[in-house]
Amino acid sequence: MTSGIEAIMRTGPVIPVLVIDDAATARPLAQALVAGGLRVLEVTLRTPAALDAIREMRQVDGAIVGAGTVVGTDQFAQAMDAGAQFIVSPGLTEKLGRVIVDSGVPFLPGVSSAGDIMRGYDLGLRHFKFFPAETSGGLKALKALAAPFYEAKFCPTGGISASTAPDWLGFDPVLCVGGSWIAPKGADMAQVEALARAASALA
C-alpha cells in the first residue's frame, strides 16, 4: 500500500489542491492540468460539488484523482463510491486511519507533530502530508521533525507558492508539494495549463 502512495507522490513535483464549486468545470480543469504535466489531482471535499467533480475528472485520460479533506469514515466511503484513487486527510485519527489502511487504498494523512507521525507509524504508514506547512513552522520545522523519522516521506501542503515550492522540493524527504496556486479562482483553462506546465518543470 505504501508503495502505491509513493508512486503517486513521485508522479509529479506538485499535487494541485482543488476546491471545485461547479462539477461542470471539473473535466476541463483536469484536462488542462494533465496537459500541463500534472496528472495527480486532489479534489477537496469542501464543496457539495466535490464528489461529482471526482467522477468527472476520472473520465480524463492520464488523470490520477484523489479525495482530500477526508475527515471521517463516511466521507471515505463516499469518496470511494465516487471513484477516488487515493485519500488525503488533514489529520490522522486511529479510527479513520485503520479503516483506510485496511482497505488498501493509497493514503496520505496530515501530520504536524512527532505524535502524529508516531500514530502513523503504528498504522504502518511512512508517507505523510505535512499540514498546514507554513503555519506549522515551515521547512525548518519539517527538517527538525523528519530527523528522527528517517523512513518518512512528505508532501508539504498549506501556504506553499510557486516561489517557495523549490525550497521544499530541495529537501530530500519531500517527494512533492501540494498547492492551490495552480488553479486560482477565476483562471481560464489556458492559464491553468501554463501554471501546471511551470509547476511540473520544478521536478
**Count, helices:** 9
Note the gap between the termini. Answer: 24 Å
Query: How is the quaternary structure best described?
Result: single chain
Report the radius of gyration as a whole number of Å.
16 Å
Largest β sheet strand count, sense and barrel closure = 4 strands, parallel
- Helix percent reads 25-40%
Order of H and E elements = HEHEHEHEHEHEHEHEH
Ranges where pLDDT stays below 50 over 5 or more residues in a row are: none
Number of distinct beta strands: 8
Structural class by secondary-structure content? alpha/beta
Q: Strand fraction band?
A: 15-25%
What is the mean pLDDT?
97
Main β-sheet, spatial strand arrangement: 3-2-1-8
Shape summary: globular
Give an account of the 3D structure:
By secondary structure, the protein is an alpha/beta fold. 40% of the residues lie in helices and 16% in strands. It contains nine helices and eight strands.
Summarize the structure.
The chain has 203 residues and is of the alpha/beta class. The protein contains 9 helices and 8 strands.
List the helices and strands and how they pair.
Blueprint: H1 2-9, E1 14-18, H2 26-35, E2 40-44, H3 50-57, E3 64-68, H4 73-82, E4 87-89, H5 94-103, E5 107-111, H6 114-122, E6 127-130, H7 138-146, E7 153-154, H8 165-169, E8 177-179, H9 189-200
Parallel strand pairs: 1-2, 1-8, 2-3, 4-5, 5-6, 6-7
